[in-house]
Write the structure tokens for this entry.
Amino acid sequence: MLEMQDVHVYRGQTHVLKGVDLHIEQGELVALIGANGAGKTTLLRAVSGLLRPRQGQIMFSDHDMEPASTHRLSVEKIVTMGISHCPEGRQVFSAMTVRENLLLGAFNRTDTQEVQQDMQRMIQLFPVLGQRQNQAAGSLSGGEQMMLALSRALMAKPRLLLLDEPSLGLAPLVVNAIFDLLAQLNAEGMTILLVEQNAGMALELASRAYVLELGHIVLAGTGGELSSNERVREIYLGGAA
């Protein structure tokens, strides 16, 4: 579904991604782990079109995301193709209501009846959003904002869901609920690329995983293989066996 070949991305003058090769098959949940500053967020932003590679190729379902012309795909077109990005820090529209945030997630859709059905599904998944749908998103707790940000991303009806640090700053019970939902979505067939600080939970959930260090992919394998890798255990899993 997604393939990155020799991708180089800069932020200003800083060379962040340095020849990244990565692929994701349809239906996989792939985790990307690494220290702060490794380039994980930059990689997601490159896939969703918020940053443009200077070199290399990103393919999504056999479509070149960076065609060799001036007619690069817009972010809106990338969303319409089926890629939805749930960013780090949630980034809800604080002054808008919960309902308005959810509807913005479906801005590119014309299937009005199905949009309403998906709204109801989001409320079933996270009942608190239904209880507070007319409340300003900025007044929600951190956990509730994460539920809203994830639901907003799902409202785009993605084929590939990009998730950036969904557990950051959340209570353990909320984190468990989010990860249970990701497992459910993946079991239903959704393809997911997960960037996550909690490497243990991410590797347990993932079918495959990559380790990104200073802009380079340094390790790849199944979640189980990386969980048992001595280097990964020492650096990312606190030395756990």
Remarks:
- The mean pLDDT is 92.
- The two ends are 33 Å apart (CA to CA).
- The beta strands are 2-11, 14-24, 29-33, 55-60, 63-64, 83-86, 160-164, 191-195, 208-213, 216-222.
